[in-house]
Write a sequence for this structure.
């Protein structure tokens, strides 16, 4: 019985959707594993004007990811990649195959140089290190012509193993857009700022916030020395933040 795979491909008349939500490996064993043989062969057979690739993967084998990347790259369709969660290591190589590369506000990229387990004598270990440098340099070519940062900055980020936020990804050219921001986000920010300003106003003894100004008449006499107008001048006024918020909401709900 053929094992199920945790990637899927859905083909419509105008586009095909591919979901890569697992490890990228030449030895697919778990349901979540993805191999270039399983996926690249299907990509090559697609006859659609647009391919959309949704990614949430910690990565895997460089060779497998490069095969998928290159299959997407030379396909005649427009390729749109979207980081649904994390596109790390080898998965980021696939992400960079997109003509358009989208991230969500709560998503991350991670890049680093190639690494592997090895064993052997000194000569074999030196050769492994040399080979890894060649592999890393070759994999870094997927970023050529797409980034706004220098090759030196990219090399440093790869060497340091860098997580990249959506904002930085957009600024540096890894992503072409950030999607999924609610339309009301900017208006809500304005409301929060207005509330903050109202609270700041109430921090000063002003009549508009419902706090008597120094020396103002009050409805009941203050018999305690600490409550006299003279003492109140140098005393911080207490702020009823809950009351301030609901008063603001009531005034502006229309």
């Amino acid at each position: 019985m053929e094992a199920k795979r945790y990637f899927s491909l859905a083909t419509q008349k105008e586009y095909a959707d591919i979901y890569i939500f697992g490890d990228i490996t030449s030895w697919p064993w778990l349901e979540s594993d993805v191999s270039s043989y399983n996926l690249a062969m299907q990509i090559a057979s697609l006859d659609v004007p647009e391919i959309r690739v949704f990614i949430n993967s910690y990565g895997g084998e460089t060779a497998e990811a490069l095969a998928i990347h290159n299959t997407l790259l030379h396909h005649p369709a427009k390729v749109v990649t979207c980081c649904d969660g994390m596109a790390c290591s080898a998965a980021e190589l696939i992400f960079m195959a997109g003509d358009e590369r989208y991230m969500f506000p709560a998503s991350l990229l991670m890049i680093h140089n190639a690494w592997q387990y090895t064993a052997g004598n000194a000569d074999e270990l030196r050769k492994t290190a040399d080979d890894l440098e060649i592999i890393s340099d070759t994999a870094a070519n997927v970023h050529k012509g797409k980034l706004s940062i220098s090759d030196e900055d990219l090399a440093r980020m790869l060497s340091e193993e860098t997580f990249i936020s959506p904002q930085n990804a957009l600024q540096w050219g890894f992503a072409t857009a950030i999607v999924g921001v609610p339309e009301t986000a900017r208006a809500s920010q304005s409301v929060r700022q207005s509330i903050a300003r109202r609270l700041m106003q109430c921090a000063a003894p002003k009549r508009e916030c419902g706090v008597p100004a120094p020396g103002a008449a009050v409805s009941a006499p203050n018999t305690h020395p600490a409550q006299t107008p003279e003492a109140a001048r140098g005393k911080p006024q207490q702020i009823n933040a809950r009351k301030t918020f609901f008063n603001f909401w009531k005034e502006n709900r229309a």
Summary: Residues 8-178 form a domain with the 2-enoyl-CoA Hydratase; Chain A, domain 1 fold (CATH 3.90.226.10). Residues 1-7, 184-192, 205-246 have pLDDT under 50 and may be disordered.
